[in-house]
Amino acid sequence: MNAGAVAPRPLYRGRYAPSPTGPLHFGSLVAALASYCDARAAGGHWLVRIEDVDVPRSQRGAEALILATLERYGFAWDGDVVRQSERTPLYAAALDRLRANGDVYDCACSRRELETAAISPGGERVYPGTCRDGMPADRRARPQLAARVRVAGTRVEFRDRLQGAQAQDLAREVGDFVVRRADGLYAYQLAVVVDDALQNVTHVVRGADLLASTPRQIFLARRLEYPPLSYLHVPVAIRATGEKLSKQTGAPPLPHDPLPALFAAWRFLGQLPPEKAEAPDCVGDFWSWAIAHWNPAELPPTGMLPAPAQFGGARVKV
Prior knowledge:
By secondary structure, this protein is of the alpha/beta class. The chain is 27% helix and 16% strand. It contains 8 helices and 12 strands. The radius of gyration is 20 Å and the shape is elongated. The mean pLDDT is 93.
């Protein structure tokens, strides 16, 4: 299927898309549980996609470990696992469409040259448009060029199922953003939009740390004439220091025994615990019970929540 061919959409098709940069941790489990329960409670499909478009960051053996952990924790996905590293031609075709429409231009700016660019309220450097109307003469001979998409005066508005009304002025808060890096790798923002469209994803459930990226993805989807998606951004787990629980901040891998972690993630998401008499005592029973009792209306309407101490939320002694 080419980048423009999108099949008829199902009623609900969700996905979980971990990056193979290390083992799953409690924050990973929260996002996986929310997306899985939301899909299954709606009678929908649930896909697993390995987001390894940033090849240099991928760790050897991480994908196998991630999939084994998901299986041990009782997640059952539909269809084959998709890997972004195998889908480069699809991203190239999408970039060609954007370029043919005049939406993309080449950029020779280095990161160092952009260090003085203005910083948006969200903490990102706003691209100043240096190469938008042609590269400066002293940069034209550079062998490696990034590709940026023109955002003009676009303001993107959407409603998140949990976080409510969202709006972003792309020109003022982001600027023209990269869709293919100078090293030739395709940017996450483009890859995820193409993948969601070509996999017929209808609902995206993920951590609120990706909420600020969503307007860029909506913008690209519109330029590529892809169908709109439903978004639900659940709270991310943070440590006592305020850092997001992640592989980079030393989050410990998920424990071998699934049930305590699954119940902890369930409580973290504000879901009501089972009555003592109906408490599941095995992974299979947990999922049957959880899917039947999943209630998005109970989700905490916030972007961050402290992680349980036993799963890495406590301050680590050094």
